[in-house]
Amino acid sequence: MMLETVTALTGAPASLDQGEVHTSQTEPQAGSDERTLMSRVLLIEDDAETAREIMAELVDRGFEVDWAATGIEGLDKARTGEADVMIVDRLLPGVDGLTIIEAARQERVSKPVLVLSALGAVDDRIRGLRAGGDDYLTKPFAIQELIARIEALLRRPSENRDTVLRVGPLELDLLSRTAKRGERTIDLLPREFRLLEYMMRRKDQMLTRAMLFEEVWNYKFVPRSNLVDVHMGRLRRKVDAPNEEPMIHSIRREGFVLRAPA
Amino acid sequence: MRLPEFTRSTTFRWTLAVSGAFILCILLMFGFILAEAYRNLTADVDALISEVANSIASREPEQRILGLDYYLRADPLRVKLGGLFAADGRRIAGNIETLPASLRVDASAQLVSLVKMNDGVREQLAVRAVARGLPEGGTLVIGRSDYEFTWIAHIVERALAVGLIPALGLSLAVGVFLSLRAQRRIEEVNSKIQRIVAGELRERLPERGTDDPFDKLAALVNGMLGEIEVLVRRLAGVGDDIAHDLRTPLTRVRVSLERARQKAGNLDELRTSVDQALVGLDQSLAIITALLRISEIEHSRRMDCFRNVALGDLVREVGDLYEPIAEDKNVDFAVRAEADTTVHGDRDLLFEAIANLVDNAVKFTPQGGRVELSLLRKGNEAVVRVCDTGPGIPADESELVTRRFYRSDKSRSDPGLGLGLSLVSAIAKLHGFSLKISGGPGCVAELAGLSAAA
Predict the structure, then answer these.
(1) Per CATH, domain A2-154 is 3.40.50.2300
(2) Residue B324 is nearest to which of A118, A223, A230, comparing CB atoms?
(3) Rounded mean pLDDT of A185-189?
(4) What is the 3-state composition of chain A as percent helix, strand, coil, each rounded to the nearest 5?
(5) Which of A195, B166, B226, B323 has the most CB atoms less than 10 A away?
(6) pLDDT tens, B10-41?
(7) Would an 8 Å CB–CB cutoff place A221 in contact with chain B?
């Protein structure tokens, strides 16, 4: 009920029962760009209510969504469909979602997967999956967290070998471990350097606190809410001087984005 | 026919068995007495009649009739028998009708059946008798009825009737009484147990203070029930705490949504209210997530993801994570991880446990205070110690703080889920580590586990 209320307020289409929904007219929000606008998502989720909520939000953000209510149907669609990313609920009727993913992988379906799971933080198989580069999200989750992770999966940073990262005036030298904004040298602590590197590799993307915590600190647990904010605050004071156009933006209740000044 | 319930009880059956054995003993005893009496009496009678027979037989023929008459006449108990028979078997004198055929002549006394003639009345009797052959032919028979023995047997019979039957009745009555009492007690216990099963946890089994085995058992069961009641209440208390902790943010959500519905004039106002509602919902979700996580860790038996974890790195990383938080709060934060030890465990969970301890310490330490995170070695144990200069934990609460939702009364008003330490406790338990929380001037938390072999 609570999720429904939220969606209703954001103006999502009321009925979305059919399997396929095409791009809606809502303007793209923070973090979306031309590439994700046309991205197709395959959602394998047996609970119609949850599926509807997820689809409504994904469509709002400019995704095309294909919904499969059972594991078998999902596996079929994964084989033949043209989805760019899959969302798989772990608890499907009669089958573990991970089994579906394994089956798909054996048939050389290599699209990235986001697993939704009620539990499993202590589960080895989930860890194995994560190690393979895909992602998982524990229920209950905020819908923004799901969107941010889907976008992150779709836009994996290219494996460039550059030793210097650049976003607008910001420059990060990975060899000499130095950072500069224009002519100004930024003095960074090691953890701040790691944080900035991650954000520069994923510029223009919404990064949630949990994602930052997992990727930068490399620990999987839900930290106290302001833990990441405090670290981000310090980094921001160093990156964005008072007289400069801000580059690190915090999106209320969602996370942070690094953008080049307009 | 269906026997009453109590007849199937063990008590009743034992009573019956013991009564049976008792009666058998009495019968054996009386039997022995009778046998002895009979033997002695027979020997006396045999000696007596043999002597009389010899004495009469040794007289002159004409004197024998007189002697026999004389003997038979002095017989107030009417027990004497005698007969003088001619060689052809004709009776010459005495009160025996015919010479018994089975009676051996000139032998020792024996039991024979004969007919006594008594003033024309014939009477069939079984008596001890001897026969003596006479020199001129003929036979002398002297007998005596076993009157004394009959008398004794009669007494014994009456004694048995008077003693044994009431004794049997009494033992039956006792058996019935005991089994009925046991049965009643069981029924009483049964009905109490039914009530307890139905949820009346305050019920106890009846105790009579008699110190019998049944009472001791009841006392034991009551002790157990007390423990169970405490546990159940504690669980129920956790449920209440969860409900309470969820109600607070959910009420805020409701209030802000309601206000938005009535008062919001434009989209911005609506958004503000919705944002407020979302904060409340996130808080509720965080509580639920934390609870699920604790029970997941508590029920996790998987040790196969355990690796060797370098605690020094872990402690330094936690320090790195919390240093700015402490600095913002103006709390002095020191990390000492000189001793580098390795333990066998789950890196993420151990990190979470240490982070939670530090989180708590920073949260409860006032401005200008100090938090110290250190890694020590004590023998073959690795100890992660977090000390702070906060208000500390009273000694009587140090056990309670690891309980779910437990919050010291002093900290009731502070934000937090009240789940941090129970999470740490669950993680410690999974690893077989010990978690010790003690008060000092501040609070000292120690997480200790066996070092892994290098």
Answers:
(1) yes
(2) A230
(3) 92
(4) 40, 20, 40
(5) A195
(6) 878 888 888 889 889 988 998 998 899 889 98
(7) yes
